[in-house]
Design a protein that fits this description.
Blueprint lengths: L9 H4 L9 H4 L7 H8 L5 E2 L5 H11 L3 E5 L5 E6 H10 L26 H11 L3 E6 L2 E7 H24 L1
Parallel strand pairs: 1-2
Antiparallel strand pairs: 2-3, 4-5
Keywords: CBS domain
Pfam families: CBS (PF00571)
Protein name: Putative signal-transduction protein
Length: about 170
């Protein structure tokens, strides 16, 4: 007999089970909300005033590596949103004369907003239907963040990946 041999004991017959999940976690139906995205992404909101020039806006978009800016008045109240798409359209309409124009001349004034408690699916539907990629998140009259269609899709993909993992664990045991 090898020197490393140990005779079986009663403890060897007891099979311990570990559970990486419970019926509660498997049946969890937590609704994905805008607030969940803001928790992971942060609540930085880059903004400018209606009187700023498009040149100032373009510089900020480039430096911050973002696709849209919130437009607020001096009191901090939402006035509109300015996206890269807005600027490109104006560049096509007024070549060579665009960067000196004011933000208020081309910003989108009728801004669709959402709140932290809104469900992601409804926000995604609104963005898809309206054909825009950025939506300010407001709590009352205060802008508390901004979500992009990329944020929503990425969050949903992570959810699906997690659900897939849960199903695999359920099947494997």
């Amino acid at each position: 007999m090898p020197s490393s041999y140990q005779a079986p004991s009663r403890k060897d017959k007891i099979q311990e089970k570990t559970h990486s999940q419970t019926p509660v976690t498997n049946a969890s139906t937590e609704t994905a909300t805008v607030g969940k995205i803001l928790e992971s992404k942060g609540k930085d909101v880059f903004s400018l005033r209606p009187q700023n020039t498009l040149h100032e806006a373009v510089v900020q978009l480039k430096e911050k590596r973002i696709g849209a800016l919130i437009v607020k008045d001096a009191a901090g109240k939402l006035q509109g949103i300015l996206s890269e798409r807005d600027i490109v359209r104006r560049l096509a309409e007024t070549p060579g004369q665009t960067l000196s124009q004011k933000v208020e001349d081309i910003m989108t004034r009728d801004v669709k907003t959402c709140s932290p408690g809104d469900q992601l699916i409804s926000v995604l539907q609104t963005m898809t239907k309206g054909k825009f990629r950025h939506m300010p998140v407001v709590n009352g009259d205060i802008v508390v963040g901004i979500v992009t269609i990329g944020d929503v899709v990425n969050y949903r993909l992570q959810e699906l990946e997690y659900e897939s993992l849960q199903l695999k664990q359920l099947i494997v045991g």
